[in-house]
Amino acid sequence: PLEMSAKKPVPFLRQVISVTKKVHRDPRFDDLSGEYKPEIFMKTYSFLDSIKKQEKEMVQKQLKKCRNVEQKEKLQQLLNRMTQQEQAQKKQQKLRERELSLKRQQRELAKQGKKPFFLKKSEKRKLELAEKYAELKRSGKLESFLNKKRKRNAVKDKRHLPSQKNL
């Protein structure tokens, strides 16, 4: 700050030397970094999938060799996280492919001269649910899934019912 005399009263609007403030950029939200396109991102960084697969195999080998209980638990958690990330990525990829196929269908209809019809979110959810049920039926896990869902709904219904104490 500028040094001022203590004998003179400080002026109301005193002269202050301005310091240029450093502006921090976050590339996630900055236009200079370009537009995020998941297809291009996946193609560019596809080599990471093979590296992740190697790491997962390495963790599995370490898990088999490990004798320490704490270390084994940590490795198991790491392995679970890796598999969950892999599953989430596959799910996201399926969703992206489904959306692309719907867009292609709409383009074909537009080329034929028909008016394009875009599905609502609820319609998309219904299609997704139907696909999920079909997949569960193919794998033979539909009954167990429905039983779990019934139990979960029963617990929710019980929670909303008045308790015996209040009666």
Automatic annotation (TrEMBL):
Keywords: Coiled coil, Nucleus, Ribonucleoprotein, Ribosome biogenesis, rRNA processing. Residues 52-139 form a coiled coil. It is found in: Nucleus, Nucleolus. Residues 147-167 have a biased composition (Basic residues). It comes from the Eukaryota. Residues 141-167 are annotated as: Disordered. GO terms for biological process: maturation of SSU-rRNA from tricistronic rRNA transcript (SSU-rRNA, 5.8S rRNA, LSU-rRNA). One of its GO terms (cellular component) is 90S preribosome. Belongs to the RRP36 family. Component of the 90S pre-ribosome involved in the maturation of rRNAs. Required for early cleavages of the pre-RNAs in the 40S ribosomal subunit maturation pathway. Associates with 90S and pre-40S pre-ribosomal particles. This is rRNA biogenesis protein RRP36.
